[in-house]
């Protein structure tokens, strides 16, 4: 077994509401090995971004971690002092955010924003950091890198800005890069460029990557392993080929079925999963997916299934379902 | 940029002409007769003589039709002649050029004091939103806001005189570096400080929820530098605008403060001119006031690109 870099156990996150705290993330278990790329997939609001933000304590106001552990290189991230936390942020773990339009400071030059992690983590002088920033921009494939350092974010295109964000995340050569839907705000050709860029950098720098997305098709060519989240829990965790070959959870199957496919000249109507995910604080008592699940039985509404290795598959393929891997006909 | 400034000045001219026409009309058709007032206020027992009054009125050109008077005034103005005060006969230009610097210096000092006190307080309050510190700062600001200058001025003056027996009465003007400026400055800064504290706080809270602040934290930037480099700068744009507006109101006549503390500024001059229906002085003050407003707005506009590079791009387009 390869070396664990990040090990999150039983992490739960709450939001403060008028009627008391409501659970958004309910006991997530996930891990990332060294050099591995983990894809985290799920619908909007399933808690995938919050889980990753909570690791660096970047949660918005009124949302807080309610319990659990997040060990990174043997230390619990959730218990770090402010000083230790600051060293991890941007130093050991780089973060790339979803929207490059708003995630860069509009009134600071690109060079100054790229220099920051170098100045605060590597004790570089302003001039050295600026020079290194130019190298970083070249690394992420920005033409005319040295001149671009003097640009402001509004003078760059969306794809260029996301490259800048990635450069900032990579500045201190972190062990882990967390990318929170980095391509959602970009158009399709730029998406592909960014994916290729991260693939290449991952190889060159030997880092682990956590890539959050709702786009299974995109993550298929990038991740080693995929975690599928539903309503704040991991419903399936499997190496990417196994997930696509033998999806165990009915929700995963629903997601896979909703990827658009063009076969020949006719295009089949897109299938979708009926219903909507539960609101935070209104989680059903048993399996959270039960109300939308075509296989749901009485046991699903009573007991929440645990994440267990799927029968007839490898140990690495774990599913949280009472009827994992069974077809609809078998369950009925 | 230069083109932009030139355009602003050109656009200012028609608007100031309209304002002056309005003011002239108000003074002309409104209540109060400057010539009669001269007689009423004259020292000793001067007999009111209708013949003499009309003679003076004639010689001052006040019997001509309204539009002709206004046109004459503008013609003189173009030659740099502001005319003479109807009341005292002194050159209006001399009166204005004595009063305006006092108001200008006072306004500038008040703005500097306000900015130095209010912006840091607002920043601290916003960064510590909903804590005791925040409530204390906000509460104090609201308290200051609730005290009008005509209450604060006399109270502070009397209070200080009673507490510090050796103190001179802080009355009159001795320049920016004279101790007598302190009290008027304090009084003048009360409400602006309250305003700017609240505005800075609100802006800080808004900026704190911006994505780029989260990015800065994710990069490992220490909180102090997050506040100073990432939060403060975007906050300054609206605050500078507000400071500019406050400065205009102070320059154009901090009437109560100037009267209470005996400062020979535009506020005092305005009051006297209004009481005496002294048209040339009123018009000159209107002109100077409008000029100052335009210049302050221009100053704020010129400062914008320094605070927000996006403004520079949009200004090039104009």
Automatic annotation (TrEMBL), chain A:
GO molecular function: any one? ATP binding
Topology versus the membrane, per the UniProt entry?
Answer: Peripheral membrane protein
Q: Where in the cell is it found?
A: Cell inner membrane
What are the UniProt keywords, alphabetically?
Answer: ATP-binding, Cell membrane, Membrane, Nucleotide-binding, Transport
Q: What are the coiled-coil residue ranges? A: none
Record-annotated ABC transporter domain positions: 6-256
Q: Carries keyword DNA repair?
A: no
Against SUPFAM superfamilies, the record matches this protein to: P-loop containing nucleoside triphosphate hydrolases (SSF52540)
* Top-level taxon of origin: Bacteria
Q: Which PROSITE patterns match?
A: ABC_TRANSPORTER_1, ABC_TRANSPORTER_2
Name the InterPro entries for this protein. Answer: AAA+_ATPase, ABC_Ni/Peptide_Import, ABC_transporter-like_ATP-bd, ABC_transporter-like_CS, Oligopep_ABC_C, P-loop_NTPase
What Pfam families has UniProt attached to this entry? ABC_tran, oligo_HPY
Family under the similarity heading: Belongs to the ABC transporter superfamily.
Matches recorded under PANTHER family: DIPEPTIDE TRANSPORT ATP-BINDING PROTEIN DPPD, OLIGOPEPTIDE TRANSPORT ATP-BINDING PROTEIN APPD
Q: What is this protein called?
A: ABC transporter ATP-binding protein
Q: Organism classification, top ranks?
A: Bacteria, Pseudomonadati, Pseudomonadota, Alphaproteobacteria, Hyphomicrobiales
UniProtKB/TrEMBL annotation, chain B:
Question: CDD domains from the xrefs?
Answer: TM_PBP2 (cd06261)
For this UniProt record, the keywords arranged alphabetically read as follows: Cell membrane, Membrane, Transmembrane, Transmembrane helix, Transport
Residue ranges of every copy of the ABC transmembrane type-1 domain listed in the record: 100-300
| Superkingdom per UniProt | Bacteria
Q: Which PROSITE patterns match?
A: ABC_TM1
The membrane topology term of the UniProt record is: Multi-pass membrane protein
**Which family is it part of?**
Belongs to the binding-protein-dependent transport system permease family.
Q: What is this protein called?
A: ABC transporter permease
Gene source species: Kaistia terrae
